Amino acid sequence: MLSAKSLFQEILDDDEAFRLFCSIAAGGEAQGGWENGRIAALVPPALRELAPKVARHGADEDKHGRIFNALLKQRGLQPVAVPYETDYTLLLERRGIGLAHDRLSREDPLTEREVIVYLAHSRVTEQRASEQMRLLLKHFAEHPVLGRAVRMISRDEDHHLAYCHEELLRFARAGHGRTIQSVLRECARAEILVYRDVSLAVMRHMGRVLDWPRPKAAALAAGIHALYAYERLAGWRRMVRLEQPVLRDALGGPALPETEYA
Question: Is 76 left (phi over 0), alpha (psi -120 to 50) or beta?
């Protein structure tokens, strides 16, 4: 029987599959760390109070990348090059979602609208990250090797999502509600398409590494397409809602190092 737990257990049990999984995850986190670091440096003077929170977000992403690399090192494995078609962050940028790397490489401050674009993009992608980590948390929270890492990262992703909700609601109260909803919808519709394509690509690579039979690969692909159909029809709406989070000022302090997590 196919399940999220059995599929991930299969990846976990195979060195090559696990190496690919951790390499993809570490690469995406590293990109997110760089992007948030640059955004923190370019926040305009009128919004400087936001800069430490953006920097904290970037520091968390960098930490996650180190965690995935540490998981590889524990098994005596080296990272592999991330296949282009599995690079979620890069493919979103290529679709014009978020702030492009060439914009972040310049030194001129961001505009207020660009900060809103950043927060809206983050709100959508952090929704996905939070959901994925909660799924892993459900099945592997007590795993002797992965459990601690899963608990750390899941907690951070929930904090990132809360931060995005809170900051976007502040901008909405300041009169930017229509802009925020427009950008959120654009990001959500692009994200579900990129997520589908990346999921299919990752499954193809994993299928080759793990020598999956054709019926199994076809069933997994059908599941990915079914999820996309649901998200395109209605599921995307969860990514554009804004609610005051229970946890306030989630990124208001410094990033906690790996050693300070339970």
Answer: left
